[in-house]
Every structure is written in structure tokens, then in C-alpha cells.
Amino acid sequence: MSSGVAPARGAAACILLASLALVGCNTNADVSVEVAEDGSGTVSVDVELDADASAAIGGPDGLVLSDLEDTGWALTAPEVAEDSTLRISAAHDFSDGAELASVLDAVAGPGVFTDVSIDVEESFGSTEWSAGMEVAVSGDPAQFSDDALTGVLGGLPLGRTPEELAEVGATEPGAATMTVELSLFGEDSDSARLDLTSGEASSAGLSVRHTETQVFVFVLAGLGAALLLASLVFAVLALRNRS
User: Fold this and answer.
1) Measured distance CA(8)–CA(26) in Å, rounded
2) How many whole angstroms from its chain centre is CA 118?
3) Nearest of 51, 140, 22, 41 to residue 95 by alpha carbon
4) pLDDT by residue (tens digit) across 209-240?
5) pTM score of the predicted model
6) Cα dist. 159→3, 11, 24, 153, 168 in Å?
């Protein structure tokens, strides 16, 4: 990620590893999944590096993110805040639940996001959208590395020995966190925050459901029933009058 090292995964997992793998400083990652009405949507990844982490990698110029664009990610130019915090953002569209699962695997590697689903069900007078996923982390940030990145980093998943990571505080609880949010077109959402350096496994299930009722269908159905009832009444009255 720095000093000309391109992302090994070729996807957003490299952003999540940016400071821990090469610096060992505080990292906060936000993964947002926004589902549209047709079941498509966008995955957004925002990673915030504190001032120490930003300085250690050389600021925005120390990042090599071209591989992300090559794999379909849209990048926003890294931003440096007044307190020298560095924010890195990337987004990737998906067409359905199956593609969403693939994009999420690119975010953090296989096994972190599972049971990913998006369903749109239409019935008489209503449409129901539902989306869900399970998120599980081991509490060890090495979970987000892979063989290729380990090779680039000299045989160490995070580029430093456990002792070196402990010395810079990278193994302290809360040194790296990931917040995941799942939402349906801005109407309903569910979220969870997981500690990536707690040393203990943790998981969260996210589930969102939204129903829209087409009131006019029921109004028309009610009017139809009323007209039917009225016609029956008139028919009965007409028969009585004839008798």
C-alpha cells in the first residue's frame, strides 16, 4: 500500500489493511451497503487513518490504489482533514445478492461476510424488500491478509512481528474497528460495529425489511365490492317489485 506496493487482493481489503499492515496505527473502516428498489445497489468502503498512520505511509502520496480501479472500484481522491486524519473511500456497484456477496468478499476476504441475501417479493397490493448478512471477525487483523500480501510483506501477514505490532499498539482492543451498515434505499437500516483487534472472535447478524402497500389497489377492490353489493341489492329489489 505504500512505497510503491500495490494491493495484493486487488480490491478493498487492501484499504482495510492500509495502516495496520504497514504502520500499526489506529484504523476505522466503514462498510456501507445500500440496496435499491430493484435489488441492485452500491458497497461503499471508507477508511480513516489517524495522523500518525497517515504520516507513516507518507500521506495520500504513499498510497498505491490503481489495482482497485482495475477491479471495478470507483475511488474518491484521499482527503486530509485539518487534524491530519487521512480518509480513503472506494465504492463498487452490484446488480443482485449474488454479486453483492462477491463484492463483499473483495472488501474483507472470504468468510467475513456470509449468508448474504436480497429478496424482492411482490404480492397483491404490496411489495416487500428484505436484505440480510452475517459478519464475523476473528479479533486478529491478520484475518484480512492473504498469501499474496504475506509474500509481499516478507512472510508476515501484517508486515511486522507480533512483538512489533504490540509495541505500536496495533494489538490493543479498538486499534482497528469495522462498522457495517445495511440499508434499503434510505428507508430502513441495520448496523454493527466489530473490533478487529480484540483478540476474540465476534459476529453480528444484519437484517432489514421494508414493505410498501399500494393503497389504491385496496381502494379499488373496496369500490368493486361495494358496487357488486349494490348491484345485488338492486337486483333483489327489482325481483320484489316484479312479484
Assistant:
1) 21
2) 13
3) 41
4) 988 775 444 444 455 555 555 565 555 555 55
5) 0.76
6) 13, 18, 9, 5, 13
pLDDT in tens, 149-170: 677 667 877 767 778 777 777 7
HSE-up of residue 172 (Cα within 13 Å, Cβ side): 10
Residue with cell 472488501: 107
Q: In whole angstroms, what is the distance from residue 116 CA to residue 135 CA? A: 9
C-alpha cell at 133: 448478512
219-224 contacts: CB < 8 A, separation 24 or more?
Answer: 221/125
